[in-house]
Amino acid sequence: MKYVRTDLDDNSEMSGSLATNSSATGGSSMAAMQSDDSVLPVGSPGNGVSQPRRITHLHRLGVVIKRCSYLEKLALLAVLVLLLIVLILACMLYNVRLTASSGRLGYANQLYNVTASANSTCTHPVCVQLTARLLSYMNESADPCEDFYEFSCGLFRQRVTIPAGRQQANVFSLQSGANEILLRSLLESASPSVSADADINAELRSNLAALYRSCLNESAREEAGLQPLLDLVAPVGPWAACNATARAYKDGWTIADGLLRSAVFSAAHSENPPFFYLGVTVDIFNTKRRAVHLSQSSTLLLRDDYVRNRTANLAALAESLEELAKLFGLTMTAQDVRNIIELERKIAEISLPEWKRRGSLLMGNSTIKQLQEDFPCINWTSVLLTLLSNSSYAITNDTPVNLHDRSFFEQLCPLLNQLSSDAEQTRLVNNYLLVRSIWPLLPFTTPAAYRIPEKLTYRIRGVHGTEAPWKICVQSVDGIFGFPLGKLFVDSYFLRDSHSAIERLIDSLMAAFNASLADARWMDEATRRQAVGKLDAIRRLVGYPHYFNNATELRRELGGYRLRPDRYFDNVVQIQRESTNRALSRLSEPVRLTFGMTPQSVNAYYSPSFNAIAFPAGILQQPFYRPQFPAYVSYGAIGAVIGHEITHGFDDSGRHHDRDGNKREWWSNGTVAAFDRATDCIARQYEAFTVDGNVQVSGQLVLGESIADNGGLKMAYRAYKQQQKPDEPLLPYLGDRYSREQVLFLAYAQTWCELITPEALRQLITVNTHPPGQMRVWGPVANMPEFGRAFGCRPGSKMNPIDKCSVW
Ligand SMILES: [Zn+2]
Predict the structure, then answer these.
(1) Where do Low complexity bias regions lie (predicted)?
(2) Which of 272, 364, 664, 742 meets the CB 3.0–4.6 Å disulfide criterion with 738?
(3) Cross-strand bridge partners of residue 695
(4) Nearest-5° Cα angle at 646, 615 to 730
């Protein structure tokens, strides 16, 4: 058990603990008191050297006492009695502690002489709960030097089960689940009706209650039927597969018309439109203004399902589409469905894999004029003019375009031209756009329609059971109307006092990253100076949007909806349309930084365009943070999260953005070459990891996140050591067994405990830029010599390899 506190531990606290345990060594205040001359029994033989000194002291004391008044003598006696009582109590406590320790920790005490001072243990209920959670996830029989993930999360994986209707369980999802219970009580306690002159908070509460109840109201959803959805998608057609519009389709529908109308429809109603994504966002090459954003979109299944011909998944999709056609009464044969899937395969084949297109790596700068010349198969100006008809954002030939995935568009035009040249193929695209328009809105209609995408996802991701209706509806309200729900969440559960403590934590992590920049010998001075400038310029978003505190702004942002408790589909459409219109109308306003994540999200992010880090209220709570947590736990958990997001500003994608968020090359060639060597080391290291038998990651796909994980933990550790206090309370029980540094690493590792179905793991591994939990622990700890020292790991052990990778 060499990992339980060793002499190799590099912390100052370690020597304090050893001293407290052994009165022979002295050093701590309690040990000094026990060996103090003045409390030795009078008449003790002692030794020849010390005895006269004691007599002298006692003699002087006697003289002083004789000179005292009666009251003074009484006071002195009282002090002596008190001192005696304190001494007896201290001895009793010490003995009790030693007995208890030797009873349950015999081996640890024998080997390492470890106990903790009783008065330095945190007995606050938060610490007790924290200890219980840390212990309940750990598998202490595992060797932390060989597999720190198993050591930290082994029992989590044995004890936690994946909830019904979910593909995974991890620390984030467990906390989100806990939030859902809180959100449910907020939603259920609010009234869905509100007077016309209600204040904005009352209006938000009633709209949230109405939306939630309309979701739960299955009979009203059943009664509304599917016609509202067919009516909504009608303007994108006319559809060949709908009897009512088949004739109009034959009169002259073209793919170009269909794509134009589909793009406009998708802007409001789909996050995953067919063929491509078109919108207006911050110009990443000049972040003071906006630009058109154009990128490839996604297929219904993952790209790999088509490219690698995963027949079971493709068959499951075919079944779902046939079910959809039947439910909506579409004239679509089984062959039509197979053709749709073949079209998706063609789109997938020209799409770029996620490992190539991560972040802004493939983002290029263009203009509308250039776009039209390069890809003339679509009238981009027409599409944009229609899309932005309610916006003051001007589209001209010189309007900037942030073009992602250029090679996709180079192949898209030949594909669309080929499809347009054939009547049957044109009908296929018409069917495809109909299916893709209906698909994202299925969850908001009848229960039968809802189950079509749900069943498909469950089959492909190996999900069992279904979630309770209230959970589905809380998640739905969260997804559709997340910021109003966030306002309720913040008002009820966010501890505003945490704000300044989090700011201080961020300060200390920034200081640690600053030190890391100073240490980076591979950087040239000019680049380093600019990097320090970028670090200093990082902006912060903590908790929730500022406009939550201002009723006028709150009304402007979130007010004006009139939702009904019996009209779920209509409510959703109203929210989608209205929020899209508001977003479009604001395109003429200056670019401003605001939260891109709802306050209740158990997550965090870095925005390269704004050079900003964001920590929603949802992650500023346990298990990541509580004001009562000892610092080493806070640093290991939320500290590493903060460090992770800061490091994103300097990962292989973030580093291309300067202090103002503009994408440009501001590093010297030599520094870039050295950086690439360091990041290659990380990519190769992660590619060598395997989880669940034989699952491996693409080093390039997870590179940005892995650089951030490594930097995050390192910064958290350094920041902790900078402010470490010697008298910091230990956790009950754990403090007897593990040093503060060890608990810091444990708190970090446990943020990545997870369970995932094998099917979901194999799906996500091709698209998720975050590596599996195991790797998020193995990589960062294996690259930190401080971890090897803290646990006394043999050089060459798995968690303390000789060759380490280091970027920041
Ligand atoms: Zn990240």
Answers:
(1) 15-31
(2) 742
(3) 691
(4) 70
pLDDT tens track for 87-123: 443 434 343 333 333 333 322 332 233 344 445 899 9
- Summarize the confidence of residues 477-498 as an average pLDDT: 90
Q: 189 CA distance to ligand 1 centroid (A)?
A: 36
Per-residue pLDDT tens digits for 509-557: 999 999 999 999 899 999 999 999 999 999 999 999 999 999 999 999 9
* CA–centroid distance, residue 597 to ligand 1 (Å): 14
- In the chain, the amino acid numbered 230 is L
Burial class (CB in 10 A: 0-12, 13-18, 19+), 604: buried
Q: What separation in Å is there between the alpha carbon of 427 and the centre of ligand 1?
A: 42
Number of Cα atoms under 13 Å in the Cβ half of residue 167:
16
Q: How would you write 605-627 as a 3-class SS string? A: EEECCCCEEEEEHHHCCCCCCCC
Q: How far apart are CA 461 and CA 738, in angstroms?
A: 39
Contact 138, 152 (CB under 8 A): yes
The single residue of 705, 709, 754, 786 carrying the catalytic annotation is 709
The pLDDT, as a whole number, for residue 1 is 33
Please indicate whether residue 728 is annotated as part of the active site: no
Mean pLDDT of 333-362: 94
Quick one: three-class SS letters along 104-145?
HCHHHHHHHCCCCCHHHECCCHHHHHHHHHHHHHCCCCCCCC
What's the 704 CA to ligand 1 centre distance in angstroms?
Answer: 7
Pair of tokens at residue 24: 């022979």
Predicted pLDDT of residue 493: 86
Give residue 134's identity as a one-letter amino acid code. Answer: L
Nearest Cα to Cα of residue 148 among 769, 742, 761: 742
> Does residue 454 carry a catalytic annotation?
no
State the CB neighbour count (10 A cutoff) for residue 27.
Answer: 14
- Distance in angstroms (rounded) separating the CA atoms of residues 534 and 662: 11
Among residues 22, 580, 546, 511, the alpha carbon closest in space to that of 270 is found at: 580
For range 63-78, the mean pLDDT = 46
Number of CB atoms found within 10 A of residue 55's CB = 12
Gap from CA of 751 to ligand 1 centroid (Å): 13
Distance 611 CA to ligand 1 centre (A): 14
Task: Sheet containing 605-607: give its strands across.
Answer: 539-543, 612-616, 605-607
> Could you tell me the domains of the chain?
12-123 (no CATH), 153-161+495-545+595-791 (3.40.390.10), 239-444 (1.10.1380.10)
Percentage of residues of the chain with pLDDT beyond 70? 85
CA of 276 to the centre of ligand 1 (A): 25
Q: How far is the CA of 761 from the centre of ligand 1 (A)?
A: 18
Rounded distance, CA 200 to CA 195, Å? 11
How many Å lie between the centroid of ligand 1 and the Cα of residue 645? 6
Burial class (CB in 10 A: 0-12, 13-18, 19+), 807: buried
pLDDT above 70 for 433: yes
Which tens digits make up the pLDDT trace of 605-633?
999 999 999 999 999 998 999 999 999 99
- The whole-angstrom separation of Cα 264 and Cα 261 is 5
Cis peptide upstream of residue 801 (ω within 30 degrees of 0): no
The residue behind tokens 């000179």 is 67
Give the confidence band of 14 by pLDDT, cuts at 50, 70, 90.
Answer: very low
Tell me the CA–centroid distance for residue 46 and ligand 1, in Å. Answer: 66
How wide is the angle at C-alpha 740 spanned by C-alphas 737 and 742, nearest 5°?
Answer: 70
Euclidean distance between CA atoms 39 and 790, whole angstroms = 39
Among the listed residues 354, 454, 557, 645, the single catalytic one is 645
Residues near 532 by beta carbon (within 8 Å), at least 6 away in sequence: 514, 517
Pick left, alpha or beta for residue 46 (phi over 0 → left; psi -120 to 50 → alpha; otherwise beta): left
